[in-house]
Amino acid sequence: MASSLEHPPTTAGRSSDDLTGLDVLLIEDSWDVGQAVKALLELCGATVAGPAATIADAEVLLACHLPDVAIVDLHLRGGERSDSLIGRLREQGVPTVMLSGSFELASLPSIEGAIILEKPVSEAQLIAHLSPLIEKKTTG
């Protein structure tokens, strides 16, 4: 039986999972999760830098260019937390989607404005939050 994630609906000649042209920075310390998200986004047409497992790795990728959006895990390798990086991304005008299984988020002012998705996140849920960024990019 096929799931709805395998055959998303189309609207106005464009598939709801079409992320063609979206430049994504992926910051995720889990190799398996990072590779799965990267594969999904690339399958949908996005260009993905990363996954970066540490803030230092992410800053190297950011030094090359600013992405259209960053997908960031709160807890990174070596016990690092990405809330300060999320704050810097916001200051640079980069929309951020934070993936986390953590419930300590309410007390983090540095993540204000970030979209917060609780792990495990569905493919459809992640794409639904990224799709509007394509509209902004093509109309803005």
Protein described:
Residues 1-13 have low confidence and may be disordered. The protein has a five-stranded parallel beta sheet with strand order 4-3-5-6-7, sandwiched between helices. It has a two-stranded antiparallel sheet with strand order 1-2. It starts with 9 loop residues before the first strand and ends with a helix. By secondary structure, the chain is an alpha/beta fold. The radius of gyration is 15 Å and the shape is globular. Helices cover 35% and strands 21% of the residues. The protein contains four helices and seven strands.
Distance between the termini: 40 Å
Task: Estimate the global geometry from the Cα principal axes.
Answer: globular
Helical residues, percent: 25-40%
| Total strands | 7
Structural class: alpha/beta
> Numbering strands along the chain, what is their spatial order in the largest sheet?
4-3-5-6-7
Oligomer: single chain
What share of residues are in beta strands?
15-25%
Mean of the pLDDT scores? 84
Discrete helix count: 4
Low-pLDDT segments, ≥5 res:
1-13
Q: Gyration radius, to the nearest Å?
A: 15 Å
Reading the helices and strands in chain order gives EEEHEHEHEEH
Write a brief caption for the model.
It is globular and about 40 Å long.
Secondary structure blueprint with pairings:
Layout: E1 10-11, E2 14-15, E3 23-27, H1 31-43, E4 47-52, H2 55-64, E5 69-73, H3 83-91, E6 96-100, E7 115-118, H4 123-139
Parallel strand pairs: 3-4, 3-5, 5-6, 6-7
Antiparallel strand pairs: 1-2
